[in-house]
Amino acid sequence: MNLAHYLGLLDRAEQNLAAAFRDVGAAHTDEPDVLSVCRKLATQCDRHAALLHPFAARYGEAADDEPDRLHAEIFRGTRTGGLGLLRDLHDLYLMAAECDISWTLVGQAAKGVRDDELTDVVARCETEAATQMRWLRTRMKSAAPQALVVA
Amino acid sequence: MPHVQTRPGSLTDDRIADPWGPRTPYGRGEAWPTRIDQYLAAGVDEADVDRWVQSASVLHSNGDALDIAVKDGRIVGVRGRPRDRVNHGRLDPKDLFGWQANASADRLRRPLVRSGDRLVETDWDTAMGRLVERSKELLDGPGGWGRFGFYTSGQLFLEEYYTLGVIGKAGIGTPHMDGNTRLCTATAAAALKASFGTDGQPGSYADVDHCDAVALWGHDVAETQTVLWMRLLDRRRGADPPRMLAVDPRATAVAREADVHLAVRSGTNLALMNGIIRELLTRGWYDADYVDAHTIGLDTLRQTVDSYTAGRVAEICQIRAADVTAAAELVGTCDRLLSTVLQGFYQSNQATATSCQVNNIHLLRGMLGRPGAGIYQMNGQPTAQNTRETGADGDLPGMRNWDNPEHVAALARLWNVDLHTIPHWAPPTHAMQIFRYAEQGSIRLLWISATNPAVSLPDLSRVRRILSQPDLFVVVQDLFLTETARLADVVLPAATWGEKVGTFTNVDRTVHLSEQAVEPPGEARADLDIFLDYARRMDFRDRDGAPLIRWNDAESAFEAWKACSAGRPCDYTGLSYERLRGETGIQWPCTADQPDGTERLYVDGVFNTDPECCESYGHDLATGAANSADEYRAKQPRGRAFLHAADYEPSPEVTSEERPFVLTTGRTVYHFHTRTKTARAAQLDSAAPDVWVELAESDATELDIGEGDLVEIRSARGALQAHARISGIRPGVVFVPFHYGYWEDDRSAPHGDAGRAANELTMTTWDPVSKQPIFKVAAVALTKIATGDARSSPAPTVGGPAPVGPGVAPTVGGDAALVTSTLGEPA
Description:
The structure holds two protein chains of two kinds. By secondary structure, chain A is mostly helical. Chain A is 80% helix and 0% strand. Chain A is elongated. Chain B has four domains: 4-106 and 819-823, N-terminal domain of TfIIb, CATH 2.20.25.90; 112-179 and 383-495 and 516-569, 3-Layer(aba) Sandwich (Rossmann fold), CATH 3.40.50; 189-378 and 608-642, 3-Layer(aba) Sandwich (Dimethylsulfoxide Reductase, domain 2), CATH 3.40.228.10; 661-811, Barwin-like endoglucanases, CATH 2.40.40. In chain B, strand 5 (65-71) and strand 6 form a beta hairpin. In chain B, helix 13 (310-317) crosses helix 14 and helix 19 packs across helix 21 (460-467). The interface between A and B is medium-sized, with 24 and 31 residues.
């Protein structure tokens, strides 16, 4: 059974996203909305990761060896300026998308193993993951014309 | 304060000592008696007045109708209009005395342009020439629209905003336009859109006459809308008075009058609201049939508020649990509930989410659309409603949705411009973001009209730095050489109220006409004429090469606006200047079918949430993430209102050992905004001549601060010095009025560290949905600098700053502040 690997993938993706939200917020303190929302969402990602831990234990014993090329790396540090902000948010969006689809797939697996507890956790977290993507999209859409055409 | 009877039915009293004047008690369901307030300049008698000119108040948001007295071509006084639905003749002290500022010797009379570090007088051709030359240069090439920013006001007239909006959206095509309404009323608009689909106040001021409970949510109405407070006080003194709830960290006049006062710790409003709603739901104090038929979201709301027990709320807000349940009982068991909301909610933490909970209480209880059951999501400025309606705050005019292609197409047809000229690719750029783009250098021209951001925006040292950037071309259009105007490249002298014609709309949707009484000073011009002149010089054209702006005066601008408003919730088509010259203002929507206007919205419980009608597809309240059209449609609103839910989260800034106090900023009854007018009226200026800081007795004792001592207040951004007033404010919170700046010293900034503007201390941060700056949660430290005495504190003794200790001389106005009131129907 490979569920444990996907739980591990999602766990690491949420942790990476939490760290990236913190980095981006701290790199753009002159954009107070970015700072405050990134902080808020970083905490949310921490909580998502923590909620997965009991299930990692539950399914870890039955796991096969971790397959190659399981984890993806998107974010390699923050940038500065208007365009830099856009690129940083863009990275966060791709990372949030990885979490989002992983929740969907873990949710499918949870139904397959008939784990109602995991299904409940997925239901809560995937809504929040979708909102994270919506916020990033909203913020980038506002910033893009000025950063790409005017500045 | 004793009232002196000067002739039968007529009283004279000092309206500085008692801003609310004599009581005219009335019972529930009765008509509010008339009381005509009148003030004429010393030595002027009624018989001397050449003519009375119809207008309404512009020094607060209540929309009180008044007549301006004119003698020998000068304004010599004012009196309330007795048959107007809003004020029944009464006036606020700022209206009674503030008109004197019109004739100030230091009014701007000619345009000014920058020459090195000086501003020098010039003619209109030179000033407008510079502005137009720069505009054309910046507009040239791709993305030219993005180099312009417009920051306007809540104090111009409807016709001016609409014209400015069309110039911005269809002439230049920029989304970078906002009003200072962002600082005062953006959350009112955001909460109304979120709950009901569009902006627009459900209630009527006449709801005061019928309610049996009033809840004032962060609203010191006694100092901000005195005439509305007079109406409430008259009900409280009459038969069958309404119960009253006040939420405010200060012991304001409202808090002292209230039956239940919750002095919550600043920044915790949402926890309180969640606790009250939890009580309503668990005790069954809600109208299940109404909720079922007319709302969406009860289950999520119930889940969200479930953990907010009275005990937990008491802990977060630092109040007594029994007071939480008492508040819930007051709003939960009445028959007709009236709510009013202002800056205590709007300028605080989680503003939109919190203000939506007020809407929720009314939706849960079915308290909408009936006499006495109403909501005032208040405005802070006289014409803020028009800034919002006409799109001068960046929204699309007529409460249209920038994300709805049909709404944008309708405007393109109306203005006869290409669809892609109208900026609709993202939400309008809010004020704080406009200043950020200016800071980064992508906005190169910032045109500021009728507002003073160098005193009113948060974190002033940053604002001054931005306005002083050499590459930013700053245009300021104002009456006086304000702190902001001193930093401008071009200063345009504007005519003001009484010197120009136009309309404006108050919070209960009452539209008033304000006529011209006198000529403006020198070469000063009406703001409308300045905008029209700019459009002509820029040669803005429509798709067929005809002039984009097809109107040339206030009345024709009003007619153009009527066409824009047709079919929208704020429909003005049944109004005209002629109709507005009647005895009373008229409430929109006003159409051929509803020629006398509409007293209450949502009488049938059908809201403007249909996807084809709504002004916004909605947001996540915690982050501001926008819904797409599809996401919104999937909710199937079908005219039902949204019950929004959100968890309490701590403020962006919280206290620490180093900065142990929470600063809240606010207002006094004697001043409006940055005092550009009210400090130029002797009665108002001497009542509150300088900044002060209020603190609680226990905090004062601990810091060894006495009444009148000079105190330094310091935050992470800056510092100011103020004399102390020991008041009834809750411990741990300090209050500084935001009105004071530096123009009296011929400066735009403080000399050294001795600032006196409250916004030296506040932080650059805003609500995720309304984008309203959060002025009321800065962490500060207090240090005593020098010992004073009771005479040293310039704080008034009236309202919020009332002293708790003895020995402070009461605020009086004396003979210069005597106002005549005529009670009952006029002869």
